[in-house]
Amino acid sequence: MAQPADKPDATSSDTQPSSGPSTQAEMARAFKDLARGEQQAAAIERNLANLESKLDALLASVEAETGAPGAGDGEEARADPEGGQPEQKQ
């Protein structure tokens, strides 16, 4: 089916970017949003690295106290918080 002559072809006008002021403003905003997103991602990565180092230090201290590497893997006995005999995990 052919398109009427008074309607332009959708592929020729809709896909070509316009260079008007609104498009430039939209692009500027998009770049600002992108830069802000990258800054937030970098901050999250720094926080995750900090958390990872704290977890590594905590794991190292637990391993040093128990004298066994991997002391939090769930295979060891749990100490009774009231000072009784350790109970075995099931």
Please provide a written account of the structure.
The protein is mainly alpha-helical and 90 residues long. 57% of the residues lie in helices and 0% in strands. The chain has a domain at 21-66. The protein has helices spanning 10-14, 21-66.
Question: Helices, strands, pairings?
Answer:
Elements lengths: L9 H5 L6 H46 L24
Q: How widely separated are the two ends?
A: 72 Å
Report the strand count. Answer: 0
Rounded mean pLDDT is 75
What is the N-to-C order of secondary-structure elements (H for helix, E for strand)? HH
Largest sheet: none
- SS-based class: mainly alpha
Q: Residue share in helices?
A: 55-70%
Percentage of residues in DSSP E strands: under 5%
Question: Brief description of this entry?
Answer:
With 90 residues, this protein is an all-alpha fold.
List keywords for this structure.
0% strand; mainly alpha; Uu.00g039360.m01.CDS01; 90 residues; rod-shaped
